């Protein structure tokens, strides 16, 4: 029997309670998040000593981060600001990588027992000058075979990472007596085959660095989980690779994964109100539905969401779903190759309410105030109640 789908649809109660919210509003389905995390963690547990961490860049909402920490996830941060969020949320395990960290930040990370994964030779040299003899992580650049590359990958052409065979890497490590203990890679979206390849690659690198004890294989779980059964097969193969490596080297090694969008995107719902409907736009040659929320301000990465009617089930038809700014390409559902993507949008008129799915990650972390249009109010659906996210945080602080 094939494994159950990773995504758990929300209960009808979420949409019933949404009727009382002002628009625009962003709703996080907590039961869905919990079910998705548990399913993904169940799969990853096939690998000995493997853990699931949240890429914090996907979500900066403290109330949601507190839920993720309470589920036992670790997290990866890319800035001092994200580090503050992670600490306040209560994540027990924190990793860090990113070009923004300064020498002051090096000390702040070390004081918390966090090993920085340096993402360039220059950053590694700066770290070594400031903290000679310290342990350090290395973000590794992986040259994927051409068959594993596509428009969603960032491997050999990434701006981040160090090539393990670069002679300068050895010189920098030796010059500052740095001790590499972590390897970290992120190659954009990954497939089951690229996961197998990256695991073999990084285990080979780790074999030549005797103090490495952790490998972070990054995120990119959207493509990995296009078929859950294939993902599970890949995790099983990774488990065999890790077990064989341990037996051959006599060393222990732990693996980490850090999805962001795949953990949260499916469980966010953007509630909006229709501002206008042009049944046949004279220039764009299609129906254009304009909302009271902006894709340009909120959703530049959200590819092809579903659009639902909150005002009863209605048939859909192709349309461009436009945001409310004066930016020409303010359209929902943009893809890397098309700023204007036709979506299936329910028949509607001004004043009707629509729900845009797949908005649970990167929506608020990407938010901008173009035209001084504020971001939506955030809410948590706990299975029974709709809770204002800011109020939930205040209540949790008072209880603590």
List keywords for this structure.
alpha/beta; TIM Barrel; nine-stranded mixed β-sheet; Lyase, Ornithine Decarboxylase, Chain A, domain 1; 400 residues
Question: Explain this structure to me?
Answer:
With 400 residues, this protein is of the alpha/beta class. 32% of the residues lie in helices and 20% in strands. It contains 13 helices and 17 strands. Strands 1, 10, 11, 12, 13, 14, 15, 16 and 17 form a 9-stranded mixed β-sheet that branches. The longest helix has 22 residues, at 228-249.
- Kindly give the count of domains: 2
Order of helices and strands: HEHEHEHEHEHEHEHEHHEHEEHEEEEEEH
Named at the architecture level, the CATH assignment of the largest domain is Alpha-Beta Barrel
Global morphology: elongated
Mean pLDDT across the residues is 94
Compute the number of strand runs: 17
Rg, rounded, reads 22 Å
CATH class of the largest domain: Alpha Beta
The termini sit apart by 45 Å
Q: How does the major sheet shape up?
A: 9 strands, mixed
Task: Indicate the topology.
Blueprint: H1 12-18, E1 25-29, H2 30-44, E2 50-55, H3 62-70, E3 74-77, H4 80-89, E4 94-96, H5 103-111, E5 117-118, H6 121-130, E6 135-139, H7 167-175, E7 179-184, H8 192-207, E8 214-216, H9 221-224, H10 228-249, E9 254-257, H11 261-264, E10 268-278, E11 288-291, H12 295-298, E12 307-309, E13 316-322, E14 343-346, E15 353-356, E16 377-381, E17 386-388, H13 389-399
Parallel strand pairs: 1-16, 2-3, 2-9, 3-4, 5-6, 6-7, 7-8, 8-9, 11-13
Antiparallel strand pairs: 1-10, 10-11, 10-15, 12-15, 13-14, 16-17
Helix pairs in contact: 3-4, 6-7, 8-10
């Amino acid at each position: 029997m094939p494994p159950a789908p990773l995504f758990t649809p929300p209960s009808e109660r979420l949409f019933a309670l949404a009727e009382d919210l002002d628009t625009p509003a962003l709703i996080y389905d907590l039961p869905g998040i919990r079910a998705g995390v548990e399913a993904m963690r169940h799969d990853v547990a096939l690998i000995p000593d493997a853990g699931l961490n949240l890429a914090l860049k996907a979500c900066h909402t403290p109330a949601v981060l507190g839920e993720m920490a309470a589920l036992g996830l670790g997290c990866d941060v890319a800035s001092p600001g994200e580090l503050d969020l992670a600490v306040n949320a209560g994540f027990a395990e924190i990793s860090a990588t990113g070009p923004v960290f300064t020498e002051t930040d090096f000390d702040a990370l070390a004081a918390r027992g966090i090993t920085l994964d340096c993402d360039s030779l220059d950053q590694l040299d700066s770290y070594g000058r400031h903290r000679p003899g310290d342990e350090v992580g290395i973000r590794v650049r992986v040259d994927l075979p051409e068959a594993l590359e596509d428009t969603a990958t960032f491997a050999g052409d990434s701006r981040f990472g160090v090539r393990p065979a670069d002679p300068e890497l050895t010189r920098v490590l030796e010059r500052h007596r740095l001790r590499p203990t972590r390897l970290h890679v992120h190659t954009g979206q990954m497939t089951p085959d690229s996961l197998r390849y990256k695991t073999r690659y990084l285990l080979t690198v780790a074999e030549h660095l005797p103090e490495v004890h952790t490998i972070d294989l990054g995120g990119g779980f959207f493509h990995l989980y296009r078929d859950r059964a294939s993902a599970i097969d890949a995790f099983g193969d990774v488990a065999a690779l890790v077990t064989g490596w341990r037996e051959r080297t006599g060393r222990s090694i732990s693996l980490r994964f850090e999805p962001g969008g795949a953990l949260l995107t499916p469980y966010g719902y953007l509630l909006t109100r229709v501002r206008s409907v042009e049944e046949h736009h004279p220039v764009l040659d299609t129906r254009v539905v304009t909302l009271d929320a902006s894709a340009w301000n909120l959703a530049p990465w959200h590819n092809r969401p579903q659009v639902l009617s909150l005002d009863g089930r209605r048939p859909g038809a192709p349309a461009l779903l436009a945001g409310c700014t004066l930016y020409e390409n303010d359209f929902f559902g943009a893809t890397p190759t098309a700023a204007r993507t036709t979506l299936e949008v329910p028949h509607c008129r001004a004043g009707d309410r629509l729900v845009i799915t797949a908005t649970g990650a990167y929506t608020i972390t990407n938010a901008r105030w173009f035209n001084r249009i504020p971001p939506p109010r955030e809410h948590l659906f706990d299975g029974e109640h709709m809770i204002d996210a800011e109020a939930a945080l205040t209540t949790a602080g008072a209880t603590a």
